[in-house]
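Milestone M4 deliverable, item 7.
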Amino acid sequence: MLALDPKTTALVLIDLQKGILAMNTAPHASADVLAKGHLLAETFRKANAPVVLVNVDFGADFGDAPRGLTDAAAGRNYPEDWTELAQGLRQPGDLTVTKHQWGAFHGTDLDVKLRRRGITTIVLGGIATNFGVESTARAGWEHGYNMVMVEDASTGVSAELHDMSFKFVFPRIARITTTADVTLG
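Output delivered:
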């Protein structure tokens, strides 16, 4: 069990939104990650600890989307509601952050929202491990937060990329745990 202080710990869930949840993911199905996200959020809400829900969005022309390869055009044909958080995930009192990059710190007010609430530890999960989750974990660590990665509340675009993050990157910057082992109090 990993006992965390609810006064200094926040849950941050990355990209549990309609368009991302529709992707093929591994090693965990996106529906399973969403279910774990719901469980974690309830644990945090019961302890009066912050829940931060992050989604990604770009302008209609995708002019502000990350370009990827230097010579590659940005943009995809996403459904109109692709940025909406999963139904029932957001509850009164939850904080939201809309990002325009892989990581949730770049160009957002996430750091301000956490620091002004006295947060020093971030419990992190979401989709995709190898994009938004890892980028947010690295930036959180660089900002001085204690990072806790929830393996079964995260999934990647492939099992290999998910495993790479959890085997080689996260052990250097975070504690790794499972949903069942996260407790507050």
